[in-house]
Task: structure prediction
Amino acid sequence: MISDNSQSLIKILRQLYFLRNITITFIVLMVLLALYSLRINLPVIPLTIVVTIMAVTNLITRYVIDAGRSITPPIIFFQLLVEIISFSLILFFSGGATNPFTFFYLIPLAIAATVIPGKPTWWLTGLTILLYSLLVKFYVPLSYSMHDHHPPGSDGQFSQHVLGMWFGFMVSALLVTWFITYLSRELKQRDKAIAEAKQRELRDQQMVTLGTLAAGTAHELGTPLASLAIVSGELTDGFNAKDHPDLFENQNILLEQIQRCKSILSVLSDSTGESRADAGHLIPIETFIDETIDHWQQLRPDVTLKYQQHVTGSAGQLLNDRIIRQAIINLLNNAADASPELISVDTSIDDRILKIAIKDDGPGMTDEQINLAGNVTFSTKPDGMGIGLFLAITTLRRYGGEVQFQRPDSGGTLTLVMLPLI
Result:
């Protein structure tokens, strides 16, 4: 798997490829302009060889990019080294240091200082200074055609040189600004990715803490529940069911609730271990949603549910994992706690994404609460801890899903669950 740093270097290498294409095109146009418009005699064959080498290097660069290979800083260093040497050869055959386009030396140095800071950048800087210094004395001087109306050393040639310096500076300034702006944007995106990774790590640590706490709680509650089951079973000893129907009815309710607690603790205990995606199995979307809704309605029969399903006949599947199912049930419970009279659920599929819209008529969430949801534990209930919402959002994110909260104009909260289909 390619690392985030390598991905960033691939993007930079792609920009270098694009930049070299611009350079080659610019050199060809300037040579043609010098030959046919400015009447400057240039050594065409050596310049053609240098441009061909640059083009071949760019084809190799394109192959490396398309092959999806891992890119390292030395590769970027080699690319910039080729750029500096090639440009130095171009200058050697076109007037050396007197060429007005020597500003282009600044572009690879600016890129090197941004991408590969440290000793490699200083090596390239030292090499550039050395080559520039050599070009002051060693170069092929520019010679003008005999048909030129301006003799050597005239003001016309000086004006052309000044114009060339202005044009070279303008192009260099535009390219440097464009590339540095691009690199700055890439660095900001990388910093954002690092911040999100740290936030995910913090959430994972919280998940481990909560998982440890849940396992310990499940173990500790087993004994008192067993004692309650024994005591509840002995409540009707010596009583007749016909004479005391209320007593027997209350006993059945207690035993059912104790059994429900045991079942919940069993699920909790099983879910605190390391969950693996390959431990479950695939299930049709309709079946997954129907089973989840049916199970939740058995848990909350007192809440009226308005359910609309728009996934009939879909070929998509989901992982039949009880942790995902429990996360959705937690969100349904939150909606039911906020709006005990009525909640609505609408399911649909959009671009291979299952969307579950849960709408309640409660007091709604503030902007601050929406921003905190899934990042920290909080609750709007007097006796709540906010663990259920935090675990639900974190669990769905771990499986590639997402949870969004919206405030409809009609009031309440719209919880949108998005899960990628398999």
The chain has eleven helices and nine strands.
